[in-house]
Amino acid sequence: MSTGQSDAKVKVEVVEEIVIRFAGDSGDGMQLTGTQFTTTSALVGNDLATFPDYPAEIRAPAGTLPGVSAFQVRFASTDIHSPGDAPDALVAMNPAALKVNLKELKKGGLIIVNEGNFGKIDLEKATYTYNPLESSDLDGFQVVRVDLNKLTREALAGLGLDTKSTLRCKNFFALGMTYWVYSRPIEPTLKWMEGQFKKRPELVEANQRALKAGYNWCDITGVFQTRFEVPPAKLTPGKYRNIMGNQATAIGLIAASRLANLQLFLGSYPITPASDVLHDLSKMKQYGVVTFQAEDEIAAVCSALGAAYAGNLAVTTTSGPGLALKGEALGLAVMTELPIVVIDVQRGGPSTGLPTKTEQADLLQAVYGRNSEAPLCVLAASSPSDCFAATVEACRIALEHMTPVILLTDGYIANGAEPWLLPEIEALKPIKTSFRTNPEGYLPYSRDPVTLARPWVKPGTPGLEHRIGGIEKADGTGNVSYDPANHEFMCRTRAEKVARIANHFPEATVKGAQSGKLLVLSWGGTYGSVAAALEHCEKQKHSVGWVHLRHLNPFPRNLGELIKRFDKVLVPELNLGQLIRMIRDQFVVHAIPFNKIQGRPFMTSEVIGAIEKELG
Amino acid sequence: MNATTLTKKDYKSDQDVRWCPGCGDYAILNAVQGVFAELQMDRAKTVIVSGIGCSSRFPYYMNTYGFHTIHGRAPAVATGIKLANPELDVWVVTGDGDALSIGGNHFIHALRRNVGLKVLLFNNRIYGLTKGQYSPTSLVGAVTKSSPNGAMDNPFTPVSVALGAGAAFVARTVDVFGKHLQETLRETAAVKGSAFVEILQNCNIFNDGAWMHVTDKDIKDDHVVELRAGQPLRFGKELSHGLRLRGFEVEKFQVGTEGGAEDCINWNPSTPNPGLAFAMAQLNEREMPVPLGVFRNVERANYEQSVHAQIAEARAKLGNGDLKKLLHSGDTWTVS
Ligand SMILES: Cc1ncc(C[n+]2csc(CCOP(=O)(O)OP(=O)(O)O)c2C)c(N)n1
Ligand code: SF4
Ligand SMILES: [Mg+2]
């Protein structure tokens, strides 16, 4: 390895896209590193998608396989929808990271590996009985061995930082290297460091030095013969920002409260992967948001219901186990016909399951998981940025139809990021809400003839004092009623009210073939993987149609008709088959399940495989 | 009487009251309506929230805003209402099972936070609505439908639980002591933070006489001690007895023979330390008198006010939050 300025000519290769994965110990700052790479790539103008994958334990024993934390970024000069299947490049900070991630790397892919962490004990922690760097494991890959520990120490020499603090900067040395290899500017990250470590100037200096040193090291040593360039993507013109799903959800809630001109109330109990929505909104008090960290999930939803009763835009955020606890209160929301929005950021289950991993297995719980006949509206967001629009729509439906709404997102889109074409605020439709104030002829359970929504009355309004509750209501007056015929009438009316929501959102559209042999029917967070698979199919001239659902209860009005145009329907889901049951229940259909339940999103290749199998 | 003056009748809803004849809940309803009329409570701004149980039917009978929620959750719903609109006067009506069993968590947390709610707990030491199972306030040995051989669980003293949760206002009264009940309600209505009132209530169907020792004319004087701020703790016919402190124990004594009147504890519900209030709440009711009145009355930061103060502070510092700015925050770039 030469140490002087290399004179070897470095080749620059322009490529359409790259998938890179940063992997290390949970203490190595891989999520931060990946996020910085993402932000920089966004600023360069690439389209991108990310897949953060981190362990449930805050700090699993250092250096072990369960402690590996990874962040995958795909950046491209074309329009992309998923973080990609196999990485082109892997940054491995220790043996465990190498072991866990190597099998997914593309053949011939680039491995930047920190050989400084391959001592005997490091290897043992990763359950290696040999040193993989010296073995045939890495045959067929392009391996760049660097001692990040040593190089970072050298770069930071003279700063007077202790060893531990010094070594904590090594992720930025690695990031600097990847910036060089993929021709990214280092300035945005340098600037970010200034803000991030504002109160610790010595850390600004240390991290900046590490980043620059990593970048320059590539320049000087000539280890890499090739640099890659991924030109900006030809995205729809406009202003963009990089956004994660949970962020988009939080902003969506603020936007909805402004569109409805209502105070926003969030009652929530911390749970992975939903907590960030609570964190974000807690920081946005100037928007008039009331955030309430309740004593438990039940109190969270009940406080939201109280706030809805008092006239707020009321929301509770949670994940699957929390939704289970909220069931009874949601029944009360159905009975009292109050508008509340429940956001379930789905994670692997059952029980505690895989808290940091993704899944789509709360669909049936959301649609059916309450005692008796308790219909409510269920929506699902399809991508990180779509969480914004989906959240606004969930609020709109709740408020305009006086009904609880459950919005399903998932860990994958909640933590994943993508560029977001910022919507024009002026173009967002106001949410129609009105509070009844006229006492004349007031009946708490009278109904809007179109939506069947009942009037919303704020306590505090003179002359409209009334009582509501969970006991069956008499039609009109809302008084307690045990009348058998009234009960049936009210059950049917509540069902009809939810069914009629379908008259107020657009019909589903089919992408690709409009009729024929095969329709792919997907929903929620699998959008990206399925979109990429369908693009591939189109290139292959396969005849296949695709419908992606946002509305799961009620379904779009024309869904049955669309399904009828195809011989078979393939339903890919990250569960053991939930949408497929609902489809089979409502329509006569030859439906084929395609399921994965590994806590991870679909790979595009898996969806392509399933489609091609059905096409024969 | 001027035209806008409301009478007790104005606080009655048009619904038939459906408690068993003779139930103590009637007297409580009557007292609440009376006090509300006396205080000319704004019906539009009053919200009564309840859980599930006989007691929790209460809101249906009041001509105010009312929300009959689900079992145990009334304090949580009420917290949401109060946070959403601090202007409202929010009362919670609950039972011993509702508040202390299924809803124990919400109960303690509402009091801990000092949300501006008035919590009335109707303690009949039984599950009335479900027809007579033992409750978390039933005594050890209580024979009920679900404890035919006697209950084995040590009971909660609701006042102790409330004090333990840090409640700023804690009182106890009795369904049939009309005057005391009204007086307590009046005092409760004036509280800014959480107010907790245990109302000893007779369920004449499933647990008749549970509070006999407190209410029976012949014996009550020996079994009740009134807590009055600034007054010595005296009880018994002709106030023959007093309560004094020995170490951390409260003991009773005959005034005159066993000690002087000056030995009696002089009641102060507003001491910084709730220790004595707790000791009074823990008196063994078989041997010692049952304290009625205000156990505790201190001022603490009010939760909903603190919440809205933080919002106001953020707005004063940052303006009212511009949606466009929020959307465009973070690193943005333009594609042309
Ligand atoms: C989730 C749930 N579990 C059980 C019940 C049945 N239940 C209704 S009221 C009640 C107990 C009520 O006792 P308490 O709170 O003391 O009120 P009381 O009827 O004595 O006034 C129970 C167990 C219920 N309504 N909901
Ligand atoms: S069961 Fe008991 S508490 Fe319930 S209404 Fe009858 S007497 Fe009152
Ligand atoms: Mg009871």
Total individual domains of chain B = 2
Mind telling me the CATH class of the largest domain in chain A? Alpha Beta
Number of domains of chain A: 3
Mean of residue pLDDT values of chain A? 96
Of all chain pairs, the largest interface belongs to: A-B, 72 and 60 residues
Structural class of chain A comes to alpha/beta
Shape of chain A: globular
Please name the CATH topology of the largest domain in chain A. Answer: Pyruvate-ferredoxin Oxidoreductase, domain 3
Shape of chain B: globular
Structure, explained:
- Chain A has 3 domains: 7-229, Pyruvate-ferredoxin oxidoreductase, PFOR, domain III (Pyruvate-ferredoxin Oxidoreductase, domain 3, 3-Layer(aba) Sandwich); 241-427, Rossmann fold; 511-615, Rossmann fold (3-Layer(aba) Sandwich).
- Chain A contains 20 helices and 23 strands.
- By secondary structure, chain B is of the alpha/beta class.
- Chain B folds into 2 domains: 8-226 and 268-304, Thiamin diphosphate (ThDP)-binding fold, Pyr/PP domains (Rossmann fold, 3-Layer(aba) Sandwich), CATH 3.40.50.970; 232-266, no CATH class.
- Helix content of chain B is 29%, strand content 19%.
- Chain B has helices at 24-38, 74-84, 96-102, 104-113, 158-164, 178-189, 212-215, 220-223, 275-281, 303-318, 323-327; strands at residues 46-50, 65-68, 89-95, 117-123, 169-174, 195-200, 224-227, 234-235, 241-246, 249-254, 290-297, 332-335.
- Chain B has an 8-stranded mixed β-sheet, with helices on both faces.
- In chain B, helix 1 packs across helix 6.
- The mean pLDDT of chain B is 96.
- Chains A and B meet through helix 1, strand 9, helix 9, helix 11 and helix 12 of A and strand 2, helix 2, helix 4, helix 10 and helix 11 of B.
- Strand 17 (467-469) of chain A pairs parallel with strand 2 of chain B, so a sheet runs across the interface.
- Bound molecules: thiamine diphosphate (TPP), iron/sulfur cluster (SF4) and magnesium ion.
- Iron/sulfur cluster binds at residues 19-20, 23, 25, 54, 124, 128, 203-206 of chain B.
- Magnesium ion binds next to helix 3 of chain B.
